[in-house]
Amino acid sequence: MVNDNELDLLRTISVPTPEAKARAQALEAALAAYDGNQNSSEAAQGSAAKLRLIERASKLWSEMMQKKLVATPAIAGLVALPIAGYAAFHILKESPFVPADVAEQTTSEPREQALARPAQVKRDLDAESRQAVAELPAPSKPEAGPAEMANQEAAPADTLASAPVVQSGNRALFAPSTAVGKMAVREIAPAPDMPSPKAQGRDRFEAFKSNPIHSAAEDPVSTFSIDVDTASYSFARRSLKEGILPDPDSIRVEEMINYFPYDWNGPEDASTPFNTTVSIMPTPWNEHSRLMHVAIKGYDVKPVERPKANLVFLIDVSGSMEEPDKLPLLQSAFRLLVGKLQPNDTVSIVTYAGEAGTVLAPTKASERERILAAIDDLRPGGSTAGEAGIKEAYRLAEQSFVKGGVNRVMLATDGDFNVGQSDDMELKRLIEEKRKSGVFLSVFGFGRGNLNDQMMQAIAQNGNGTAAYIDTLAEAEKVLVQEAGSTLFPIAKDVKIQVEFNPAKVSEYRLIGYETRALNREEFNNDRVDAGEIGSGHSVTAIYEITPKGAPQIVDDLRYGAASTANPGGIRNADEYAFVKIRYKAPDGDVSKLITTPVTDADAVASFDAAGVDQRFSVAVAAFGQKLRDADQLASMSWERIIELAGAARGSDPYGYRAEFLSLARLASALSGGNR
């Protein structure tokens, strides 16, 4: 025990002024003692609970890990320096250095006894600590990752040899080296369970199987909703540019085809909202089949005919939107859109995080600076109450509803709803209820890592809406400026396509893409069934691979009960390959109308090269999408052949979209080893 009177004596006595010679001797003794400790075979300090130094270092390291600091070599060096300084300070402070010359400066016996007694206590404590360390099990050495191994290989051997490792749990710290006058610090080795610098993706996509081959004799009718979304292509582009092959479930081939503008023949006036062109050509990946190419072009609304717009920007400002490719990119994108609006258009802004709120009440687009200021002031933070935001946005849209105009909610989010109704089916039902108000919905996805594409597709498809993915400002300019008419102004809604194949001419068929838009045969004539919309000037393409009668089949004919085409009186329209029917409603209508197109030999071309440039390019894109999905039908077609087809059909490319596609195909080829 230490006598309190003796400690009081220590507090009251004055400290002698050291001479220069004594100071030099003390420093020499300190360095000698330190070197001795380094060469000692005793267990390194830091493992026992009583040893304060490693506790402080471990606590500091733990707090940094809780903040998800990813230790790159540069950051590790910055972190290691203060730790090393901290360690050096306490090592020098707590080591029992009592140089002889300094001891000789003390002349009084009470002072000598007072100094000696605390030193003895300190030595006793150190002995207890070493004993505690010796009794602890030896910690396992963490396995070094590639970065740590590279750093260790680059370090001089003599430096590493002089830097013993201090272990604490699964964290490894290099102790100071024995360099005289310096404390050399090596990099902090991260724990084995430390996440890699690249975040693990938690993007959600709806899983689906590619369309199967159907026998025309058994199942001659194909029905689906049109899809003018483009999100799949944009996401695949981002993945490929980051050196990653996209998730096959993120590939919706129809969205890749419809991403590009095509010069299909459109209608002459608004009385017919779109025109249909069908062509038949040989299949570049199968010599025994043909492609039936269905191209739809929407009427392009002239600026003088453009209706007034009532837009509500529904913006996700939750904490997950803090990354540069989310809210900051979103703000820049919406600034571009504001610049395209007419003075009499109306803009409202609703945000949602932990709760929803109105940032900007309905405001005329002529007050441009006020709208832009509201956009610029948005800041991320909180959870994601998407349901509340949707309800508030629809309320504002209905409040400023423009009869005969465009009424649209424009939802911008990463899709990470986690407050209120966050289940996809619940949100789908909410949107189905809200679409009855006559308000359309556009969904714009941002960012990656927790992108909920599945949810965005669900609400867009059930809200008379479309979905796009914006990964760059250039994509924002394409969607919101160049294609503002098709994005904002619908010319038809609930558009469905039904194709009936003639078993006398076609033995098999399969639809390329549109798996998530499939409808039952009876739903084609049911006006209560929701389907996709077509905007002003939109191009929509659907491609079937068909097997002509007499060509080798994949599916065997039935032995019993097979449908027969034999008819003594002859088969009506026996010269037709198929009959294409399109059903649609006007944007403000409730009753559908029908457009039909027969497909005959007159629509066929003798060779693939004889088809139009746009047809051939769209087929190349279809092959690209199927290849990314690893479709069986494309197993024998190489990436080089796809690139060759696209390059030969590049045609007019004023915005460089097709040139970019060629570079993406080359990236996909390289990432898949050229043979996937």
SSE order and pairing:
Layout: H1 4-12, H2 20-38, H3 52-66, H4 73-94, H5 100-104, H6 109-135, H7 146-154, H8 157-161, E1 165-168, E2 171-174, E3 214-215, E4 221-225, H9 231-241, H10 253-257, E5 274-283, E6 286-298, E7 309-316, H11 327-338, E8 346-352, E9 356-364, H12 368-376, H13 386-399, E10 406-413, H14 424-434, E11 440-446, H15 453-461, E12 465-470, H16 473-482, H17 484-488, E13 490-501, E14 506-512, E15 532-535, E16 539-548, E17 578-585, E18 593-599, H18 613-628, H19 639-648, H20 657-671
Parallel strand pairs: 7-8, 7-10, 10-11, 11-12
Antiparallel strand pairs: 1-2, 3-14, 4-13, 5-6, 6-16, 8-9, 13-15, 13-17, 14-16, 17-18
Summarize the structure.
With 676 residues, the chain is of the alpha+beta class.
Low-confidence stretches: 41-51, 68-74, 94-112, 114-119, 132-200
Count of DSSP-assigned helices: 20
Secondary-structure-based class equals alpha+beta
Using DSSP, what is the number of strands? 18
Shape, principal axes of CA atoms? globular
Helix content: 25-40%
- Mean pLDDT comes to 78
Spatial extent as radius of gyration: 36 Å
Major beta sheet summary: 6 strands, mixed
- The percentage of residues in β strands lies in 15-25%
Question: Could you please describe the fold and organization of this structure?
Answer:
The chain is 35% helix and 19% strand. The chain has 676 residues and is an alpha+beta fold. The chain has a six-stranded mixed β-sheet, with helices on both faces. It has a five-stranded antiparallel β-sheet with strand order 3-14-16-6-5. Strands 4, 13, 15, 17 and 18 form a five-stranded antiparallel β-sheet that branches. The N and C termini lie far apart (78 Å). The model is unreliable at 41-51, 68-74, 94-112, 114-119 and 132-200 (pLDDT under 50).
